[in-house]
């Protein structure tokens, strides 16, 4: 593994911890204010954010390996990964809201908490 891959792995691990922590804290808040169902809905939303992160990290690793052979193909992997993550996030939201009948606000807040952890991680890295 080269230094770039090691940096991605370390950053992903740090961000994963931040997302789990922020999602857990928000879930505790929802549990305290609205009960177990809302807390579980929040955790589901945070889980969507975590799945998106894992897919992003996997795509970046694949693109980095491919860039050594074909930079153009590497970019294609990144674009395809973005579309894949977008579709998966939408499908997971649909499953949570329509099939599982989760609390929409709590699910969205859980997802946003994970995304805000991503932004905080980027700002901290600067």
Description:
It contains four helices and no strands. By secondary structure, it is mainly alpha-helical. The chain has one domain (3-125). It is flat.
Largest sheet: none
N-to-C span: 24 Å
Ranges where pLDDT stays below 50 over 5 or more residues in a row are: none
Can you tell me the overall shape?
A: flat
Strand segment tally: 0
Percent helix: over 70%
Please state the structural category: mainly alpha
Average pLDDT, all residues: 90
What is the succession of H and E elements?
HHHH
Number of helices, counting only DSSP H or I runs of 4 residues or more: 4
Radius of gyration: 16 Å
Content of β-strand: under 5%
Number of domains: 1
Provide key terms for this protein.
126 residues, single chain, mainly alpha, 0% strand
Topology:
Elements (H helix, E strand, L loop, with lengths): L2 H32 L1 H32 L3 H29 L4 H22 L1
Helix pairs in contact: 1-2, 1-4, 2-3, 2-4
Summary of the model, kept short:
The protein has 126 residues and is mostly helical.
